[in-house]
Amino acid sequence: MKRVTVFCGSSFGTDEIFKAQAILLGNKLAEENIGLVYGGANVGLMGAVADGVLEKGGEVFGVLPKFLRSKEIAHNHLTELFLVETMHERKTKMNELCDGVIALPGGFGTLEEFFEMLTWAQLGLHKKPIAILNIDGFYDSLIAFIQTTVDKGFLKQVNQDMLIISDNIEDLLNKMKNYEAPTVGKWITKETL
CA angle, corner 75, sides to 50 and 40, nearest 5? Predict the structure, then answer.
């Protein structure tokens, strides 16, 4: 993996551990010569993970829609900042630039971006590892819900297994490096009916 996209909140959340782990993830990415691709802002967890990479001399590529430039204040010390027109262009550019995806804690935007990349993997549009750094159990309820989608027949087990989950940065990165995409397609065939 040369570059990883990180989706995360533009705020810090309520627990100091979220910011601390975002910085540590950034440090670890730089130490392993893995560049960061992220939303381009200098606020919240977004800014923390970028600062973590930069303080260890790593590369950081931001992708920011022009209309968010004044709200998600653009980081001034990035390797490169790409300005795009729309949120969809943002995700497309982030996908083009990365070899894998990690979700840190965040809100609607984080979840939407993360699930679109996961859906693209499910559809076979890419074969990149998609991961959750489950800091302090932040994503426990979501992980349980994903299990419910399998139990109720809306998601295949093979597609659930695409999702890499760990609460440990080093373990998560190792799992991502060793990831092999499933060969089973999403779509139901006549033979499976």
Answer: 70
